[in-house]
Write a structure and sequence with these properties.
811 residues, alpha+beta, Topoisomerase II, domain 5, Gyrase A, domain 2, Topoisomerase, domain 3, 4 domains, five-stranded antiparallel β-sheet, four-stranded mixed β-sheet, rod-shaped, isomerase, Topo_IIA-like_dom_sf, DNA binding, Topo_IIA_dom_A, cytoplasm
Length: 811
């Protein structure tokens, strides 16, 4: 059959028609009035209803009914949503609808039903409809061909940039931010008077977006790109203040939020971050916003630096966000990406067309009226003859014909004389008629000058724009920042002072100023400084500074990285915060090594040792960048776990000790540097059922000793020299004589005679003894009893406290 078409061609044709319908008829605004069809129809329907700003408002349902019944055959809720948005002062920079009733809130609350709310056009909206009845714009049939609707409004307002627009069409989208009316008028005047001006010249007057919700906006490269190309991204952020409270406490108050942000969701996000302890120092969060404005109050702990919390709010919450500008609009029934200059050119061209069409209309009306007045003047000058002529005529048509012949009048003039009331024959009325005729002649001359002289036309546009600015312009709400919006460098606010990081065996961590230890009275037992709770003791005691990195290695071979100042501060005797509240730890995962480092240089190395005797040496530079979720520090074989990490150099030596009392000593140089996720090489050849329990690093030439402790409370110390240096991977030598009485080796570490030893038992008892109380013996011995244990009890952990640490910890 001849009328058959392929489905491919039909789909292409139909989809193209659908795309054009969505682009032109729904989603993309017109560059001239800045309105989408639904908004234009809402305003025109109100104009037809006489629902102006100086009239009583009408029910929203009535307006919506007129819109969908006459012009916009779509859903009533879609039309009402558009109407509601036009009335929201937090959505529109200058609302086009004045509403009475509940029109929603910045918290995301929906508006009341349309049967409850009332609307009318705002005063500014009247400038959109000015002169619409003077044939200034084209009209087209509505959807059922029974009415006429405007294709565009003859607006005096540069609405595309004033209130912005957003929409998603087929294959394209628009997202135009709102601007300040006063700045837009200044830019239009520059474009009008100096058409050769550049985008940079216009941007000097149009500073940037002016959002109804205020806040800050960065006038950087992204904004320049948007104005020069039509596309760009700007950063916007809310406005916060710091308020002083009683007794030295402080609060952060959020007064303005980014455009289109739901305030309640922002508050929920802040609360969640505070509960997750990603933002530290918050004690209370309240939303005290009311009709006078936004006020979200964040109370801080005493001593918290507000700038740090503000920086975290900008970093982790939508209080700082990006606004992608995409200035796409319909130009001549085609979507087009526009520069700032192009938008101004299109609007001014629209104003020229409107004023020219209006002037043609006014000129035509004025000339018609002048023509009539000329005839009336002739009649008044010859009134007696006119009256006699009319009286002598039998019918009005005869009188009209005789007047036309006698005085050379047109038909319109003759009819006007016949329709003239007798009161116009008075001298006063005669003078008024003459004055009106003179004024009309002046107007006709003025109208013709507009049409014939481009400079006069520009003067009309200029005067209208200036009047618009004087009447409707308001101060800028969004503050533009010239410098790039960057987060405050926290370390600039925190002094790099000496602090102590303590990590307990059960996973409690805290940061304490070193001064709080040094200022304590010395000579006590020291338990208060070491003991962090029932059955717990300090596992790692690091004297460091706030700006250094804290590296936390877990038994599963992962590494987490924090800045030292990110560790919550606690008093000298405080328990601290559990490590699981700071790091996303997995089940049965714990931190077994804590190190601090200032720089991740290639000259520094980490040595890793595992339960199954593997060792690995890797450059510290490989661990510089760590995600919050941690990174793989060492590859582990199935059933293996990381037991210890040490910072080493080529001169260091390593002593691995095992559960069955074996030890091997070798140089770190025997372990070649490897990648971050490498498994490593064999450090010791383990016998069946044996495992490594400790990795001891010693600097060559030091006269230190190795303290070995067993499960049932036996221990000994042995000079390093008693362990001969071997090649890596050997079987090692005897380190401890393991018997049923001593139990397996629990661990080993280097000590000096002035150190103290802390032991924790399975019944949560803590024993503290001096290292000098344990005699120094050979390798193949079982040592001496360190602690008397009850039946079934055993030692679960131990650590040493150096003389320096004792002085700092002692109370």
């Amino acid at each position: 059959m001849s009328n058959q078409v392929t489905i491919e061609d039909e789909l292409k044709k139909s989809y193209l028609e659908y795309s054009l319908s969505v682009i032109i008829g729904r989603a993309i605004p017109d560059v001239r009035d800045g309105l989408k069809p639904v908004h234009r129809r809402i305003m025109f329907a109100q104009h037809e209803l006489g629902n102006g700003y100086n009239r009583a408002p009408k029910k929203s349902a009535r307006v919506v009914g007129d819109v969908i019944g006459k012009y916009h055959p779509h859903g009533d809720f879609a039309v009402y949503d558009a109407l509601v948005r036009m009335a929201q002062d937090f959505s529109m920079r200058d609302p086009l609808v004045t509403g009475q009733g509940n029109f929603g809130s910045i918290d995301g609350d929906s508006a009341a039903a349309m049967r409850y709310t009332e609307v009318r056009m705002s005063r500014l909206a009247s400038e959109f409809m000015a002169d619409i009845d003077k044939e200034t714009v084209e009209f087209r049939p509505n959807y059922d061909n029974t009415l006429q609707e405007p294709a565009v409004l003859p607006t005096k307002v540069p609405n595309l940039l004033l209130n912005g627009s957003s929409g998603i069409a087929v294959g394209m989208a628009t997202n135009i931010p709102p601007h300040n009316l006063g700045e837009l008028v200044d830019g239009l005047l520059l474009e009008l008077d100096s058409p050769e001006c550049t985008v940079a010249d216009l941007a000097g007057l149009v500073k940037g977006p002016d959002f109804p919700t205020g806040g800050f906006c960065y006038a950087g490269r992204g904004l320049r790109d948007a104005y020069e190309t039509g596309r760009g991204t700007v950063k916007i952020r809310g406005r916060v203040e710091v308020e002083e409270r009683k007794k030295g406490f402080q609060s952060i108050v959020i007064r303005e939020i980014p455009y289109a942000l739901n305030k309640s969701s922002l508050v929920e996000k802040i609360a969640a971050l505070a509960n997750e302890r990603r933002i530290e120092g918050i004690t209370d969060l309240r939303d005290e916003s009311d009709r006078r404005g936004i006020r979200v109050v964040i109370d801080l702990k005493r001593g918290t630096i507000p700038e740090i919390v503000i920086n975290q709010l900008y970093k982790y919450t939508p209080l700082e966000t990006s606004f992608g500008i995409n200035m796409l609009a319909v130009v001549g029934n085609r979507p087009q990406l526009l520069t700032l200059k192009k938008v101004f050119e299109c609007f001014l061209q629209h104003r020229r067309e409107v004023i020219i069409r209006r002037t043609h209309y006014d000129l035509r009306k004025a000339e018609a009226r002048a023509h009539i007045l000329e005839g009336l003047r002739i009649a008044l000058d010859n009134i007696d003859e006119v009256v006699e002529l009319i009286r002598a005529s039998k019918t009005p048509p005869e009188a009209k014909e005789r007047l036309m012949q006698r005085f050379s009048l047109s038909e319109v003039q003759a009819q006007a004389i016949l329709d003239m009331r007798l009161q116009r024959l008075t001298n006063l009325e005669h003078e008024k008629l003459i004055e009106e005729y003179r004024e009309l002649l002046k107007k006709i001359e003025y109208f013709k000058s507009i049409l014939e002289n481009e400079e006069v036309l520009r003067g009309v546009i200029r005067d209208e724009l200036k009047e618009l600015k004087e009447t409707y312009a308001t101060p800028r709400r969004t503050e533009m920042l010239e410098d790039e919006l960057e987060g405050i460098d926290i370390e600039d606010l925190i002094p790099d002072e000496d602090v102590v990081i303590t990590l307990s065996r059960r996973g409690y961590i805290k940061r304490t100023p070193l001064d709080s230890y040094q200022q304590q009275r010395r000579g006590g037992k020291g338990i208060a400084g070491v003991h962090t709770g029932d059955g717990d003791f300090v596992q790692d005691f690091l004297v460091t500074t706030n700006h250094q990195y804290l590296l936390l290695f877990t038994n599963k071979g992962r590494m987490f990285q924090l800045k030292v100042h990110q560790v919550p501060e606690g008093s000298r005797t405080a328990k601290g915060m559990h490590i699981n509240n700071l790091l996303p730890m997995e089940e049965n995962e714990w931190v077994n090594t804590a190190l601090t480092i200032r720089e991740f240089t290639e000259e520094k190395y980490f040595l890793f040792s595992t339960r199954k005797g593997m060792v690995k040496r890797s450059s510290a530079s490989l661990y510089a960048k760590a995600r919050r979720t941690g990174l793989i520090a060492v590859g582990l074989r199935e059933g293996d776990e990381l037991i210890m990490v040490r910072e080493v150099d080529d001169n260091c030596e390593v002593v691995l000790t095992t559960e069955k009392g074996i030890a091997i000593r070798f140089g770190c140089g025997d372990v070649r540097p490897m990648g971050r996720s490498a498994t490593g090489v064999k450090g010791i050849a383990l016998s069946q059922d044996d495992s490594v329990v400790a990795c001891v690093t010693v600097q060559g030439g030091l006269e230190s000793e190795i303290m070995t402790v067993s499960r049932y409370g036996y221990g000994k110390r042995t000079l390093i020299d008693r362990y001969r240096v071997q090649s890596r991977g050997g079987k090692g030598v005897i380190n401890f004589k393991v018997t049923p009485k001593t139990g397996e080796v629990l661990g080993a570490m280097t000590v000096v005679s002035n150190d103290q030893l802390i032991l924790l038992t399975s019944t949560n008892k803590i024993i503290r003894i001096g290292v000098k109380e344990v005699r120094s013996v050979g390798r193949a011995t079982q040592g001496v009893r360190l602690v008397w244990l009850d039946e079934g009890d055993h030692v679960v952990g131990f650590d040493r406290v150096s003389e320096q640490e004792q002085e700092q910890l002692d109370d």
